[in-house]
Hints:
The structure is a single chain. α2 links the parallel β5 (61-63) and β6 (87-90). This protein folds into two domains: 5-160, Rossmann fold; 163-281, N-(1-d-carboxylethyl)-l-norvaline Dehydrogenase, domain 2 (Orthogonal Bundle), CATH 1.10.1040. 43% of the residues are buried. The strands form three sheets. It has a five-stranded mixed sheet with strand order 5-6-7-10-11, sandwiched between helices. A four-stranded mixed sheet has the order 3-2-9-8, with helices on one face. The chain has ten helices and eleven strands. The mean pLDDT is 97. It has helices spanning 5-17, 70-80, 96-100, 140-147, 162-182, 192-211, 220-230, 238-244, 251-265, 270-281; strands spanning 23-25, 34-37, 40-43, 47-49, 61-63, 87-90, 109-115, 118-122, 125-128, 133-137, 155-159. Helix content is 44%, strand content 17%. Bound molecules: NADP nicotinamide-adenine-dinucleotide phosphate. Residues 1-7, 25-28, 64-67, 69, 72-73, 91-92, 114, 116-118, 120, 238, 250 line the site of NADP nicotinamide-adenine-dinucleotide phosphate.
Amino acid sequence: MGVGAIGSVIAALLQTAGQNELVLCTRRPLPHLDVETPEGNVRVSYTNLTSPSVAQVVDWVIVATKTYDAPGAGAWIKRLAEQGAPVAVIQNGVEHRERFAVYVPEDRIVPVIIDCPAERRAPGSVHQRGTAELFIPADAQGRAFAGLFHGSAAQITLTDDFLSAAWRKLCINSAGSISALLGKPAGVFREEAIGKVTLEVVRECAEVGRAVGAILDEDLPEKVLTQYRNYPVDSVNSLLADRLARRPMETDARIGAIVRFGRECNVPTPRNSLLLSLLEAL
Ligand SMILES: NC(=O)c1ccc[n+]([C@@H]2O[C@H](COP(=O)([O-])OP(=O)(O)OC[C@H]3O[C@@H](n4cnc5c(N)ncnc54)[C@H](OP(=O)(O)O)[C@@H]3O)[C@@H](O)[C@H]2O)c1
């Protein structure tokens, strides 16, 4: 469920793995799904449902909506996971379990972080521009979820320290909020002054992450800045893409989380608080 950029990439991977039968849950009918992957084009075969009221139970529920669409996803989860199916939540942020605990017991939620540049070109057409890397907790359910991708091109890391993996990704995403606020793609990070601000924003995020127990490299802010400076100058992160398309942005799950956890742990987050206020005002 959530057959956008990431959901479509996941569907294509599950299909190439070979042993999976797919049910794609969408808000509007999806007559076909084609994913251009680094390994070639995949036309996905599936059953399409467009209303939770007709959903039947499944073995696994996989959610790849935007974080702010959790309530809509929850309506599907209630039907699909009625008989105890585990629910993999593939989203950014650090609150995968908290976000879905109202719809399914927390011990059935498998949080997943994905690194994969992908975008929807049109309904039913998705471009996956690079390898999909999934970070999954190395417990029994996480291993079972990883097993669904066996034989596909997915790069999977089973980790005993999912918390650190999620905060590391949040540190990368925290920088993206600067270009979303400016309305400018990645080239803006090459400017000296923006580079300085980026280091400060990511440093704050890393300090909050460490306060909640994540283990993060000391030089992570510098690495994040280098990563953004190495992107093509016209590269658009997903927060900026949402802003440009006049969609809601995942500000709460990203910058909001940094500010919230910072407040709880008494770690000051003045720069992220300012970014949050300004982006929310937009
Ligand atoms: N795109 C990337 O490169 C990337 C990379 C790493 C991580 N992520 C993360 O992955 C998550 C998904 O991002 P995305 O880029 O794939 O988002 P996306 O392209 O906007 O796709 C989200 C999909 O969810 C669907 N949806 C929303 N509410 C629904 C409901 N009630 N029932 C059924 N479908 C529903 C939307 O349907 P409609 O078509 O009807 O709007 C849309 O197809 C986010 O947390 C994002 O931060 C994205």
